[in-house]
Specification:
The complex is a heterodimer of chains A (about 300) and B (about 350). By secondary structure, chain A is α+β, with helices and mostly antiparallel strands. Helix content of chain A is about 20%, strand content about 25%. Chain A contains 6 helices and 13 strands. In chain A, strands 2-5-12-7-8-10-11 form a 7-stranded antiparallel beta sheet, with no helix packed on it. In chain A, strands 1, 3, 4, 6, 9 and 13 form a 6-stranded antiparallel beta sheet that branches. In chain A, strand 3 and strand 4 form a beta hairpin. In chain A, helix 1 packs antiparallel against helix 2. In chain B, helix 4 runs antiparallel to helix 7 and helix 12 packs antiparallel against helix 14. The termini of chain B are far apart. Chain B has 16 helices and no strands. The longest helix of chain B has about 30 residues. With about 350 residues, chain B is mainly alpha-helical. Chain B has 2 domains: about 150 residues, no CATH class; about 200 residues, no CATH class. Helix content of chain B is about 70%, strand content about 0%. Classes of the chains: A alpha+beta (about 300), B mainly alpha (about 350). Chains A and B meet through helix 5 of A and helix 3 and helix 11 of B. Chain A: It is found in: Mitochondrion. Chain A: As part of the MCIA complex, involved in the assembly of the mitochondrial complex I. Chain A: Belongs to the CIA30 family. Chain A: Its main location: mitochondrion. Chain A: InterPro entries: Galactose-bd-like_sf, NADH-UbQ_OxRdtase-assoc_prot30, NDUFAF1.
């Protein structure tokens, strides 16, 4: 669409015998010159830097180093493949009833997570993450601000989130977690009484479903004691672009990509969440398959 | 699913298969393939789960592309030779394009990436249809054109299918994906012999359909979808679990079970055709598949899970097992002694 508009503009310039302007208007996006091609930038968005192809470093040595890194990753993956599923013995896979996925003991553990807030849409919330006392937990803290950005189109604001980095294999191939042996998410956290939302993203293949998210709520107590919160996977509901879907489906745990926490309770003020570890549990007392209506609701009478 | 919709889908599947099997003209064969593709889509996406819809979309895209290639191959042949007869495929380019298209349809390496994902996204009964009934029309086209096809790409794809089908099935814990890789591996065995002895390939296909149907229906009866659940399924039907072990070993091709017959005959035929290295390679690659069949049998029957198991034991199954399961399981195990009778039909 933008290309068609650009071509039309260039055609009209050409009709007016302004050949240099034609070339300039076609050249402008290539050079990244924002003065020549106007583009709206949302408040809070970073100014347009160099275009992606300009960032590419065509260095032969760097390419060889990158190839060596990827080949060593591939070698490690092959060795893990020979051991068993996910690099562990099959007996471990069949017998395990608990598994610690992420624990926060060093900066390296923190680097596996990404924090974000409504600054990306022009909001004013702040979020930070650091290691807690004695390097025994991660501390996610900040300030929530529900003031909407004044850009004429955004009505609501005020969210902060923390999301695990998606696992990537050799040659940037997507890796997925297989949680099908477990039925409960186990979190050891110490909050401040504010409610959080736990989100699981399964990264579907097609873009039609890229906004699908499985979510559930985590109500924290606040107080000096640690909480051990167990959320069965049967409780997670399906939402798309933030809207809870009418047709609900249970989450399929064989291809999970990321786990995230979001706070958006519409209350201005500071928040704080300490996380000791995140794990999985097979709770044999939990027999619910799915918490929401799964029968056909529109059968003809 | 709406019973009327299910009936229409089932009838369309039968119609499409029959049209392709009985056709002499490429356009009619293509029509049958397209009817089959469209009829199976509602069955794959029956539950409307996002993953089922993803599986249906992937299936449609791959099959549509393959059907387009088949049509293109037949049109190229018609352009060069002036006729549309399926058995008169003489243009070499058309043969190559058709080989590629059939490989995509069947899920042979290197066009196999869609198959485990699609099978994982659909229920076990639909997976059974995808692994057996939906393979019949493309295999038939391969059978009818086998004398015209170049054997080099077929043999290459067959060896790769046997290799990758075995290798990639090694670490799977989801049963549908394991059966998908088993299917890819068996397709390798079928396609390596189809040029030299098409009837032997069809025998391999029929026996594969019978044994795979037995496995799928057994898994459907005990309602198990992954290895952990399979470990506790013995409590539901101990006899069926024991027979499942034998059925899986038959699928692996171990004597004295039925599944040994096609592998033995194929190796014998390859040796007669002076393809000893190919025969040895295929025999060695079948060991990879044997590993995961043995693992399935180990989990289902050979071991008792420890006292504290991962899943609540379900002590009974809700519906009685269909008699068809018993017939298929029995035939999957005991047909080897009557192999002289079977051989007279080849």
């Amino acid at each position: 669409m933008a290309l068609a508009v650009m071509l039309l503009n260039s055609a009209s310039f050409h009709a007016g015998c302004c050949r240099h302007k034609v070339l300039l208007s076609l050249r402008a996006p290539l050079l990244g010159d924002s003065k020549l091609c106007s583009s709206y930038r949302r408040p809070g968005a970073e100014p347009a830097k160099k275009l992606s192809w300009q960032n590419a470093d065509f260095s032969f040595k760097k390419g060889i180093d990158h190839l060596k890194t990827q080949l060593s990753l591939l070698k490690k993956e092959t060795q893990d493949y020979l051991k068993g599923p996910s690099g562990h013995q099959i007996s471990q896979h069949l017998l395990e009833q608990t598994k610690v996925l992420w624990q926060f003991r060093s900066q390296e553990d923190l680097n596996k997570w990404v924090i974000s807030s409504d600054v990306e849409i022009g909001g004013k919330s702040k979020v930070y993450i650091k290691l807690g006392r004695n390097n025994q937990a991660a501390l996610l803290y900040g300030t929530l601000n529900t003031e909407a950005p004044r850009d004429g189109e955004t009505k609501y604001s005020g969210y902060c989130s923390m999301r695990s980095r998606p696992a990537v294999g050799s040659f940037n191939r997507k890796k997925y977690y297989d949680w099908s042996n477990f039925n409960t998410l186990y979190l050891r956290v110490r909050g401040d009484g504010r409610p959080w939302m736990v989100n699981i993203y399964t990264d579907p293949y097609f873009s039609h479903q890229k906004d699908d998210l499985y979510s559930y709520f985590m109500f924290t107590r606040g107080g000096p004691y640690w909480e051990e919160i167990k959320i069965p996977f049967s409780k997670f509901f399906l939402s798309s672009r933030g809207r809870v879907q009418d047709n609900q489906h249970p989450i399929w745990l064989d291809k999970v990509r990321t786990l995230g926490f979001t706070i958006g309770d519409k209350i201005d003020g500071p928040f704080q969440l300490e996380i000791d570890f995140l794990g999985l549990l097979n709770d044999r007392a939990h027999r619910e398959e799915f918490a929401y209506e799964a029968y056909d609701k529109n059968t003809p009478v | 699913m709406n019973p009327q919709a299910k009936l229409i889908c089932t009838i369309s599947l039968l119609l499409g298969t029959t049209i392709t099997l009985s056709s002499n003209h490429w356009a009619l064969a293509w029509t049958g393939l397209e009817i089959n593709t469209l009829a199976i889509l509602p069955l794959i996406a029956k539950s409307h789960h996002p993953r089922s819809i993803e599986a249906a979309t992937k299936y449609f895209l791959v099959q549509a592309a393959a059907s387009a290639l088949i049509l293109f191959s037949s049109m190229a042949n018609a352009w060069h030779t002036g006729q549309w007869d399926i058995t008169q495929l003489t243009c070499p380019t058309s043969c190559l394009i058709l080989t590629t298209a059939i490989a995509m349809k069947l899920g042979m390496v290197p066009f196999h990436f869609w198959f485990p994902e699609v099978l994982q996204g659909c229920p076990l009964t639909t997976g059974l249809l995808l692994s057996t009934a939906m393979k019949l029309p493309p295999i038939t086209l391969l059978f009818m054109t086998s004398q015209s096809l170049n054997h080099t790409p077929l043999v290459t794809m067959a060896v790769l299918s046997a290799a990758l089908g075995g290798w990639m099935g090694l670490n799977q814990t989801q049963i549908r994906k394991i059966l998908a890789f088993s299917s890819i591996s068996h397709l390798g065995w079928m396609s390596i012999i189809i040029v030299y002895s098409p009837k032997l390939a069809m025998l391999n296909f029929y026996l594969y359909v019978m044994i795979t149907a037995a496995v799928f229906l057994t898994m459907n009866s005990i309602k198990t979808l992954n290895l952990s659940t399979l470990m506790t399924s013995w409590a539901k039907t101990p006899t069926l679990s024991a027979m499942l072990m034998l059925t899986l070993l038959s699928l692996a091709g171990l004597p004295p079970l039925t599944g040994f017959l096609p592998k033995w005959l194929i190796i014998q035929e390859l040796t007669k055709q002076d393809m000893v290295p190919a025969a040895v390679t295929m025999a060695l690659l079948s060991l990879l598949s044997l590993f995961f069949y043995l693992r399935l049998a180990y989990c289902a029957t050979v071991t008792l899970p420890p006292h504290t198991t991962n899943h609540m034991k379900q002590w009974h199954i809700n519906k009685p097992t269909s008699p068809l399961v018993a017939i298929l399981v029995t035939m999957s195990i005991i047909l080897l002694p009557i192999s002289p009778t079977i051989l007279t039909t080849i």
